[in-house]
Design goal:
Blueprint lengths: L2 H12 L3 H8 L6 H8 L8 H11 L4 H9 L7 H12 L3 H13 L3 H17 L5 H8 L7 H17 L3 H9 L3 H5 L4 H21 L3 H14 L3 H14 L5 H14 L7 H15 L13 H13 L3 H10 L7 H15 L2 H14 L6 H9 L4 H8 L1
Helix pairs in contact: 6-7, 6-8, 6-13, 7-8, 8-9, 8-10, 10-11, 10-13, 13-14, 13-15, 14-15, 15-16, 15-17, 16-17, 17-18, 18-19, 18-20, 19-20, 20-21, 21-22, 22-23
């Protein structure tokens, strides 16, 4: 019996009513499913969702450690171990994912071998070890038969297209994903996880394309089907971003919900705090989220922005000049030019900002320099063209 099973069994023995309470909380018709699983050392839960929900309910601050340890006790030939691999990957538990990939690769089961091969490609693609072209070439050498991997072998490329702002390729690839296959998955956990991945990718793409209502639609659909912290954090962040230039209060409300959702998962907090910092600076509010002692380029830009808003333009310019532009990507260069425009009120800086945002494939934050150009008297017709 795994340590997790024994922990739960001891907890339920101490409180006889807790088993029924948990069963109801995780959506089971009766407590017998959990009882049978706990009483049989070899038995595995058919749906990983039940395991995750139970651990979240009983040990919310130990979820990742407990499920990670338990996942490595699962039979790599069976579905539970494959579901654990998706859990590891979607929760950015890289070490666990790598260990499970090895276990599944060595298992005497063709489906587990197939999952291991595809997820290994995804891992190498995510870490930059493989390019999209290299991953595509290697994917051609894998005979994919399971419905899950027919879907995931396409989903894994969407992250690369999103990061490169290749929205046409992202939309095209999504259109090739057979959602009927997803709906037919036997595992509710994998089904909802893949659906959430696709919905959040669509939301991200729509945000960058300044399709705000569609962004909100996809985020809401995602949040209805998942309680995975990754999707909660980025879902609320995307929702908050859609209100960035419309409503300080609404944007802040969603960003704070995002922070609250990842209280046990620090890796998602940085981007939320960065969004809160930009929001406070943009609206001229008190900023509690400045990383004052950071050397990170994004943090330095936020500190410069805060100084601009507080009338310290010389200090802001000093900070901007201290960064090496060769180390900045187009997105960061766009903000650098935007901040310089706020300091000098020279239109050229705002036009530079727009050009960099275009190169970065971002229409949403392009709103910021466009607003400033409007204040400086640029014609609505010109601004409309640059907003396209």
């Amino acid at each position: 019996m795994s340590d997790l099973k024994q922990m739960m069994k001891n907890k339920f023995d101490e409180n006889r009513g807790l088993l029924k309470e948990v069963a109801i909380a995780v959506g089971l018709d009766s407590s017998s499913t959990l009882s049978k699983w706990l009483d049989d050392p070899r038995k595995e839960l058919a749906d990983f969702n039940v395991l995750v929900s139970t651990v979240k309910y009983l040990y919310p601050d130990k979820e990742y450690d407990l499920i990670s340890e338990h996942s490595l006790t699962l039979d790599p030939k069976k579905q539970a171990s494959r579901q654990a691999l998706e859990y590891a990957d979607v929760n950015h538990l890289g070490e666990l994912a790598d260990r499970l990939i090895i276990r599944l690769k060595e298992a005497k089961n063709a489906t587990s071998n197939e999952w291991a091969a595809v997820y290994e490609l995804h891992r190498k693609l995510s870490t930059g070890e493989y390019s999209v072209l290299q991953a595509n070439d290697r994917l051609c050498g894998i005979s994919i038969k399971s419905d899950e991997m027919k879907v995931f072998s396409k989903v894994m490329f969407l992250y690369q297209y999103l990061n490169k702002r290749e929205f046409n390729r992202l939309d095209e690839t999504i259109s090739y994903i057979n959602m009927d296959l997803v709906e037919g998955f036997s595992s509710e956990y994998v089904k909802n996880s893949y659906r959430a991945r696709i919905l959040m990718l669509k939301a991200n793409a729509c945000l960058f394309d300044r399709k705000l209502e569609e962004t909100r639609k996809y985020v809401n659909e995602c949040l209805e089907i998942t309680d995975t912290v990754r999707f909660l954090a980025f879902g609320y962040m995307n929702m908050g971003n859609t209100y960035m230039f419309e409503s300080y209060d609404k944007a802040k409300e969603f960003f704070l919900k995002g922070l609250e959702s990842c209280q046990h998962r620090d890796i998602y907090k940085y981007e939320l705090k960065l969004s809160l910092s930009f929001l406070a600076n943009y609206w001229g509010k008190e900023n509690k989220y400045l990383a004052e002692y950071s050397d990170d380029a994004d943090d330095l830009q936020e500190i410069a922005f805060w100084n601009i808003k507080n009338g310290n333009k010389e200090k802001a310019l000093e900070i901007l000049n201290s960064t090496n532009k060769d180390d900045l990507d187009n997105f960061q260069l766009a903000f650098d030019s935007y901040f310089r425009g706020l300091i000098t009120l020279e239109k050229d800086h705002f036009y530079d900002s727009i050009e960099y945002f275009i190169l970065a494939g971002d229409k949403f934050y392009r709103t910021a320099p466009l607003i400033e150009l409007k204040k400086l008297g640029e014609s609505e017709r010109s601004l409309k063209i640059f907003a396209m």
